[in-house]
Amino acid sequence: MNKCLRNAVIVGLGVFLAMGAFGCAKQDHQSSEDPYRFPEEKHLKNIRMLTNGGENAEAYFSFAEKRLIYQATVGDLQCDQIFVMNIDGSQKRMVSTGKGRTTCAYFLPGDSTFLYASTHLADEACPTPPDRSKGYVWKLYDAFDIFLARISDGKIIRRLTDSPAYDAEATVSPLGDKIVFTSTRDGDPEIYVMDLDGSNQTRLTFAKGYDGGAFFSWDGKKIVFRASRPQTPEELEDYEALVKEDLYRPTTLEIFVMDADGKRMKQVTHLKAASFAPFFHPDNRRIIFSTNAFSETGRNFDLYIINIDGTGLERVTYNGTFDGFPMFTRDGKHLVFASNRFNKQRGETNIFIAEWVD
Length: 358
Description:
By secondary structure, this protein is mainly beta.
């Protein structure tokens, strides 16, 4: 079961699967009773693999929690498209156009429509990857806009954003009344909210640095997100030079929370590492997220859970490669996440669902 992951798994504008070359991670601690679980993972049981092959990530539950929507590069696809499946992994089908690159899909109330970001209006081909001569950087493609589509046939029924900048990373409040997203329309990657029809687009963050990957709390009162805050003159100079080219270096990200109107912002983690993909536990007092803060090489990402006040940090996964993009069910009994664990081919990332043991 030992697998070596490929060097630099894709970063799909919200997909943050690796920070460099992985080594060979031992994955030979399976048990016949729970074959995808490691013995130390006391918060997880009955883990099931829902996809089996390709690059699959960012799987989020429908409001009724009967289906998952996610992005994947599988088969002949050259970059991510949006798929749906039942929560047992059955009836997988693509619901995006198959053109351009897509990212960050999410169901709307009623589960008959969904939103996602896509570059297909600018070019039907996959966009050019970022220039790695500048190191490990994300490309915030200004061709990304957010669209509303039907789940039945994938037909786009509305364009929600129409700025000449990057608009992506959109998620929906569990109350079903607001969309939160990231945009570079004002020159810096900031967090915005809008109504479900795309109206009343309002900026919430104003600090220098990248702000993104936002989710509402279950009561709709708070927003959790990842952010960078360059401090030194060197960090600021590097940040400013990259952002002018729609690039960002994601080596240091911390988890922040704020009220749903952008007020009372607070930094939750101080790990000085790449922490991302935060999501609220249904008690609205804890946040689960992924980080490489305790990896000796910086290449291993595990899930951790922390109190909203920054106390009680606890490790959840013990994979040795990558675990990320967690989402709880509304009752807190199940957790879906993406992982490199027990993959059959180098570079594969799959979607898993587990029972949560609190």
